[in-house]
Amino acid sequence: MTAPVTAIAWPARGLAASLHRRVHRHLASIALGLVVPLGLLVAWAAAAASGWLPEQILPAPRIVAETLVEMVRSGELAQHAGISGLRVLAGFSLGAGLGLLLGAAMGLSRRVEDTVQPLFTALAQVPTLGWIPLLMLFLGIGETLKIVVIAKAALVPVTLNTASGIRAIPEGYREVARAYRFTRVQTLRRLILPASVPPVFTGIRYGLTKAWTALVAVELLASAEGLGYLLVWGRQMFWLDTMIVAMALIGLVGVAMDAGLARIEARLQLWRIDAR
Amino acid sequence: MPDSRIEIARVAKDFSVDGRPLRALDGIDLTVAPGEFVTIVGASGCGKSTLLRIVAGLDPAHDGEVRHDGRPVTGPSLQRGIVFQEPRLFPWLTVAGNIGLGLENAPLSAAERARLVAEHVALVGLSGFENAYPRQLSGGMAQRAAIARGLVNRPGLLLLDEPFGALDALTRARLQDELQRICAHEGITALLVTHDVDEALLLGDRVVVMAPRPGRIAEILDVSASKPRDRRDPVLAALRHAILDRLEATQAAQPQTATAREAGRRPAATLPLAARSA
């Protein structure tokens, strides 16, 4: 009992020091994440300043920034972003919700998995874009189409990760549950739910990325509003600055959503927070 | 409560290997008296863990039956605690939470549960680590927690499947001594499977030597040395030679006779023990 004690004496020794170290590491990782984007920005500014490409094709960062300010001020950007956000929210909630249910059913029941898996895999192979023509015929080009396409995009990774995450729970843990005569509900609550948090969140984060990408795709094809529409419109009008603003915003919103989910995930897994 | 009797009668089990049935256990007869500590030793592949899993009710026997205090074993029971080779602690629960898993289906109030958990944390020497998570524990500490989880229901029988096999030699020796102390303190019946002859002798009132293919009992030795035992006891040393000889014989006898034995072999009788009173 003597040797291992040091391994666990940390709470008393230096919570403050450990917090300090963690904040430090966090800031360092943010700084590292900014190196490449800032480098690109500098390269862009240099390329634009040298006149390497005509201004219509590569507007300077300053012009794009002005466009951004202008679009924010007029409320145009907020309007497009708001519409896109609502679409993603609706489609993603629907797709992820169904994906969780379907994935859980597949993970928990071999019979459901055997019934659903082959068709599901086949359907999942068809890219989201490939579904749009058929869905357009069924659903028209209104909001329903957009929400269904986004939902489908989110559904696939959420389902697959949930199902395989539940399947991957070690047999040894299941035996512990069996040895103590856990009921199905107890097994679900005590073992399956906590054990499947990491893979389910991987699926959800991936699903959100997919949903966001699908949004842009479906707005490119069939919309008169939204960030994807802004991209098409910018291209058709040859407003490269508008396009770049829309692209940057799409990317930033994606990063923000992913970071938000990562936060929730960490909250749910306090037991492994400083294992990383 | 403690002091369960286990009767294993004509237990056999087949595994399917490449579509053909392979006899893993054949004609196992063994009775464990209330309060007795029986250890089962054998080379890997002799079916000793399979036998333990059948007694636990985790796997069914194909033939014969196991009775626990007269009632046939048909599945796991809270009256039979089990400790696996790996601790199998749930990483998202603290030490206390993991030990409490054993009480999930015990008809107790929250206060009684908490009291039992605290008592067993102390019993295995983990006081102060109730709120530690498994990843913060050393291998020995994790296995202590697993033993506490196996005992927290106060089962009549404790089953241990190579519980110290993955630990370093020093930790293993320390935990063996602790287990001796705990089992004497609780007056519990215990069945421990191991491939470590010294461990089998240190802990067992009787040592069951198993032979492989098909898994069967080759010999049962009484260990008369009083408990708690010292691993340097010369009585144990003499028995050690007898067991090692026996294990070697079962290995050596194997290749040429394996096929001839396969069909309808009867259980080996319990041999009179040679080295009993050294």
UniProtKB/TrEMBL annotation, chain B:
What Gene3D superfamilies does the record tag this protein with?
Answer: P-loop containing nucleotide triphosphate hydrolases (3.40.50.300)
The ABC transporter domain covers 6-237
Q: According to the UniProt record, where is the region Disordered? A: 250-278
Q: Which UniProt keywords apply?
A: ATP-binding, Nucleotide-binding, Transport
Q: Which residues form a coiled coil?
A: none
Recorded GO molecular functions are: ATP binding
PROSITE patterns in alphabetical order: ABC_TRANSPORTER_1 (PS00211), ABC_TRANSPORTER_2 (PS50893)
Concerning Pfam families, the annotation shows:
ABC_tran
PANTHER family assigned: ALIPHATIC SULFONATES IMPORT ATP-BINDING PROTEIN SSUB, TAURINE IMPORT ATP-BINDING PROTEIN-RELATED
Q: Describe the family membership recorded for this protein in Swiss-Prot or TrEMBL.
A: Belongs to the ABC transporter superfamily.
> What is this protein called in UniProt?
Sulfonate ABC transporter ATP-binding protein
Q: Which organism is it from?
A: Methylobacterium indicum
